[in-house]
Design goal:
Pfam families: DUF2097
CATH class: Mainly Beta
InterPro entries: DUF2097
Protein name: DUF2097 domain-containing protein
CATH architecture: Roll
Oligomer: single chain
Strand order of the largest sheet: 1-7-6-2-3-4-5
Order of helices and strands: EHEEEEHEE
Number of helices: 2
Distance between the termini: 26 Å
Helix content: 10-25%
Radius of gyration: 13 Å
Structural class: alpha+beta
CATH topology: SH3 type barrels
Shape: globular
Strand content: over 45%
Number of domains: 1
Amino acid sequence: METEIILSANDVVDYVKNEVKQYDILEISYNMVYVPGEVLDIEEDEEDESLNLTLQLMGELLNDTVHLDLTQIKDDILEIRHTKTDDELVIIVIEETLK
């Protein structure tokens, strides 16, 4: 079942921090980049105010591990698909001024 919600960039960081677990699937579209992968690790650094994701990419040509600081790219995120078991949540990110 697919559900769609609209969040601000700051709310997306909070959502990932609170709702995404290890081995969930995240497909992140930001700027002109598409990053589909399985979550291997989520690490929050309150001192640096960062949220670091480690993803195992699920590409046909590239099957590597990538590290993303979600707080650095949050303003460029267009959409995130979060899949866990049979549920899929599509998060559309909007600017604070449009909310």
